Amino acid sequence: NTPVKIAVANGDGIGPEIMGATLKILNAAGANIETEFIDLGEKVYLSGNTSGIAPDAWEAIRKNKIIFKAPITTPQGKGYKSLNVTLRKSLGLFANIRPVEALVPYVPSHFPDLDVVIIRENEEDLYAGIEHRQTQDVYQCLKLITRPGCERIVRYAFEYARAYGRKKVTCMVKDNIMKITDGLFHKVFDEIAVEYPDIQNETQIIDIGSARLAAKPENYDVIVTANLYGDIISDIAAEIGGSVGMCGSANIGNNVAMFEAIHGSAPDIAGQDIANPSGLLNAAVSMLAHIGQSAIGDKVKNAWLRTLEQGYHTADIYKEGISVQKVGTQAFADQ
Amino acid sequence: NTPVKIAVANGDGIGPEIMGATLKILNAAGANIETEFIDLGEKVYLSGNTSGIAPDAWEAIRKNKIIFKAPITTPQGKGYKSLNVTLRKSLGLFANIRPVEALVPYVPSHFPDLDVVIIRENEEDLYAGIEHRQTQDVYQCLKLITRPGCERIVRYAFEYARAYGRKKVTCMVKDNIMKITDGLFHKVFDEIAVEYPDIQNETQIIDIGSARLAAKPENYDVIVTANLYGDIISDIAAEIGGSVGMCGSANIGNNVAMFEAIHGSAPDIAGQDIANPSGLLNAAVSMLAHIGQSAIGDKVKNAWLRTLEQGYHTADIYKEGISVQKVGTQAFADQ
Ligand SMILES: CC(C)[C@H](C(=O)O)[C@@H](O)C(=O)O
Ligand SMILES: CC(C)[C@H](C(=O)O)[C@@H](O)C(=O)O
């Protein structure tokens, strides 16, 4: 079998460490992939390219169609555009899939039955990047919601639920206030839901919805929502399930897919071999499923679960009485 | 002493029940107030007034300057504007103050040390109500942030922290994406924070900030944030602290102030004498402090705490082994 070619970005901050650890594991598991490293992020930004992506990286991405990306640092300042957002939008990665599962008793959480997948619209909303200063004192940002955007993500959520045997899709919006934009999202959800009589559906206002998710996450199965709400509630689910450091995500488009951790580049702990590679590793598991190597993905996932069960924990989830040994990034990967 | 005149709206759904229960308690505690009932909400909407407020209610509000308001039902449909938002904006109620405190072991919560005050900007952001359909498929909503709006709410938060002996103010924004609008909020926060060297300050991105609030609320003291973020995180804090049914809020302007529960009108349980009046009661406690009757407010608050400690619980917080007796709205108020 010819290996599947993948564009790999080492990232900034803790990126290179967790990418190194993850690739070592994929290699040991026998993943049939060929990596092509691309430069993205800080180095590119600081070379004067405010997009953070050099032309040859674009070329490698367009050719390989699969990106495996460690977290990136975007420099402060109005001139620099978020690379994540540029990639998601330029490549049409309309769906951001974020599964979160508690691993009690191995990883501390108040919510042993948390098992939720957040399906986040990934191109529109306040992330459209349309912002301006209208007068000296008045600043505005445009929230954009389109019917095709809503249809695509809502349908994706129901298809996902069906494919993975999930029972319910919950839509979260704020359409008691944004009757036109969020109202459209809700309306499209209702329209499409009737095509899936085998899947339950419900809609909640984002304020009480995210509150209930934080208090009783076991009541949620699949959640579909707009970009910014999805950004917020996926961090909530991940953090109350153990840590944002544990979760990976898949950014899916019609031609290209990108896999990444949901957390940032954590420059404060970079280079110390203490970061948790689990988020990127779980992103790799999704990637392996996506490229038709799910048996190897399962092997990686099981090895990861076994390591956590045996109590080898990185500092972020280490807890006396639950953990057996506090390990660094590389030692965790070796286990 | 002449009694303080207050415009009182009975509200819709569970509104009349919890208002009746609350006024009974205020009366028993000796609150020196004179109530003038005004019509707001469903009845007014359905009479053809799409604002939900009749002219004579406006007059009573402008005259009394204090509104005590039970939850309102806004009818479905694009024509009807949210009354809450209309009141907040028309009356310049720029600050929405939402204290949340866990009452473990009397009220179940995973977070015994939760004690946070959320100070939410109350007029701007996506609540500006500027929304339109640009083409058949493209819908837009404008997020508005102004410098005076940011200055006013941030200063309010630091003054509040100082007045109530609180140690830290946390600002939450998404300025890695909205560099201009949320960037302004963050910038103004930093400018004003230096004027309060006695109060610690920090800024967090709303995704990880709300996740940390949900996972470790004891790390937060006062939080200041924009309107929609504040809407979401105040429901989160309230729900993980026990129930959204427990919390009241103060909407403060330069001339007028409005006090209300943070929850909605819950039409599904209306008229059954099972709703928890605690949210509205806590709003009343804030109102009493506001009108210079804080001794009576303390008395009410202590009676409420004592009732909870004795285990008289409404159905929403009832839990076997913690509660002693499940009581209805009126029986709870009588206790
Ligand atoms: C880094 C940031 C631009 C990004 C986002 O807001 O989407 C991150 O929070 C995420 O969730 O992937
Ligand atoms: C009812 C609704 C308009 C309101 C809001 O969004 O502000 C409510 O959720 C609140 O928090 O007071």
Describe the structure.
Chains A, B: Residues 5-335 form the Isopropylmalate dehydrogenase-like domain. Chains A, B: Belongs to the isocitrate and isopropylmalate dehydrogenases family. Chains A, B: Keywords: Glyoxylate bypass, Magnesium, Manganese, Metal-binding, NADP, Oxidoreductase, Tricarboxylic acid cycle. Chains A, B: Homodimer. The structure is a homodimer of 335-residue chains. With 335 residues, chain A is of the alpha/beta class. Chain A is built from eleven helices and 14 strands. Chain A has helices at 15-29, 42-46, 55-64, 83-90, 147-163, 181-193, 206-215, 227-240, 278-290, 294-309, 329-334; strands at residues 4-9, 33-38, 66-69, 95-101, 115-121, 131-133, 138-146, 168-173, 200-205, 222-225, 248-252, 257-261, 312-313, 325-326. In chain A, helix 1 (15-29) crosses helix 9 (278-290), helix 5 (147-163) runs parallel beside helix 6 and helix 7 (206-215) packs parallel to helix 8. The radius of gyration of chain A is 20 Å and the shape is globular. Strand 7 of chain A pairs antiparallel with strand 7 (138-146) of chain B, so a sheet runs across the interface. The complex binds 3-isopropylmalic acid (IPM) (2 copies). One 3-isopropylmalic acid sits between chains A (82, 84-85, 231, 262, 264) and B (176-177, 207).
